[in-house]
Amino acid sequence: MLRLVAIGIACGFSAALVVPRAFAAEVTELGSPFPTDEQDQDGDPAVGVRLGVTWRQRVTTEDIDREYVCLAHETIDGASLCPDRSGIRLAKDLDAESTSSELELDFRVALWRTLEMRVHLPIVLRDDTTLRFAAGVDGKNSRTAPYNADQLFDVPHRTRHSGLGDPSIGIWTTPIARVRDVTQPTLALGLELGLPLADVRRPGDDTVGDGIFSTTFAIAGSARVQSWLEPFARLDLTLALAANNELYPDRGATQTVSGPPQRVAFSAGFELVPYERAADRSAVRIELGGSLGFVSAGRVPTALFDAIGTSPCSTRGPGAADPCSLTTTTSGRKASGTTVEEEHVVLGTSLAVHYDVFETLRISTRASAAWSTPHYLTFSDVGVDTDGDGNVDTENRSGDDERDPDYVDAWDAPGSRFRSESRLILGVDVSLSVRF
């Protein structure tokens, strides 16, 4: 049964084809990537250790539009904005660019090529975000930072975070595996736990912790179908639980969304093997893959996080409110910076080259790209109708306020919301690992 599952996950390729003596795909690898060599009279060690370091660079660009209320037959400079009827429209507002550099330390212990324990420790060298006006936007027509009215935050706005990130631990097992029997495909099952041990990210602070407990269940399969070809696939389900009340406050029954999003992702691809040498266990693998992920609605620190969280909400121009209250929630608190992000889909692709110089040394490089479907960055509902009268009241029949305590009119109300129209993430990874 497990063999059939592995073959199915590996894109339906049959494991019954003639299979050469070669390694398993990296996505299903535990311990050494090479099958047992019958010429090795001592057999494989019961315990294997792998130490690795990976440098990651990510550049994220995002076009952020903002809603506005358009009135029928309203004109600006003689141009009609809503010739047909009134409604809510979207207009270009901001461009966001984030650059992050990270080192991840990786420690793994494998037992009998069947069980592997993993520890990951990320070190964020830099995580910079810059918000600018979109092309054709300035203080004259911006709805975020107009020169003659209250400004939600200053534009341009720049922030930087760095420090130790949240570590994760995991355990993986391979019920069936090619490294133990070259006639078999490989099936790997994994459980990864993210631990909120780092100082939590705060607006304007030099901290990077996510403030969440996460649990990832993973299943991966691969099958060598030709001497030069091994398809693979992997499915991940990540459940997240808030561990920090500042980023993810729980305000009670009328709060519509308080916790982080949940995620599911499927990835698949194949590895090409242009070179391998069984004698010294060296090989070159070229990996090409794609991914499809779904992210549920949840409260997160978006590209607007630092700008909102550090906003002085300055008052400029005649008639400006004093004090400015654009970042004030319905409960009278200042907004923390996290906002409710709408559910969306993430599409990705990657190209990697793995070079096993010999069995104990591997060098890998990877280039990746991911794109998110358009979605709202500020998407909180106004509240919960607790008395069933069909309305969300500031004072219901029982005298209770039914509004979401973290709702902010300035960006959650229809006609004021921020929307990500295009988010592109480009990445480069370089890693080095040794086994002994």
SSE topology:
Layout: H1 2-9, E1 47-70, E2 75-76, E3 79-80, E4 87-111, E5 115-133, E6 157-164, E7 168-176, E8 186-194, E9 212-222, E10 229-242, E11 263-277, E12 282-295, E13 298-300, H2 305-309, E14 339-341, E15 344-358, E16 361-372, E17 375-376, H3 409-412, E18 418-435
Antiparallel strand pairs: 1-4, 1-18, 2-3, 4-5, 5-6, 5-7, 7-8, 8-9, 9-10, 10-11, 11-12, 12-15, 13-14, 15-16, 16-18, 17-18
Structural overview:
The protein is mostly beta strands and 436 residues long. The chain has one domain: Beta Barrel (Porin), CATH 2.40.160. The protein has 3 helices and 18 strands. A 12-stranded antiparallel barrel has the order 1-4-5-7-8-9-10-11-12-15-16-18. Strand 9 and strand 10 form a beta hairpin. The longest helix has 8 residues, at 2-9. The protein starts with a helix and ends with a strand.
Report the C-alpha radius of gyration, rounded.
Answer: 26 Å
Structural class: mainly beta
CATH topology: Porin
Task: State the CATH superfamily name.
Answer: monomeric porin ompg
Q: Would you identify the regions where 5 or more consecutive residues have pLDDT less than 50?
A: 7-23, 37-42
Strand order of the largest sheet: 1-4-5-7-8-9-10-11-12-15-16-18
Shape: elongated
* Number of strand segments: 18
**What level of helicity do the residues show?**
under 10%
What is the makeup of the main sheet? Answer: 12 strands, antiparallel, barrel
Strand portion: over 45%
> How many domain regions?
1
Helical segment tally? 3
- Shape-level CATH architecture: Beta Barrel
Give the SSE string: HEEEEEEEEEEEEEHEEEEHE
User: What integer is the average pLDDT?
Assistant: 86
Regarding CATH, which class?
Mainly Beta
- What distance separates the N and C termini? 33 Å
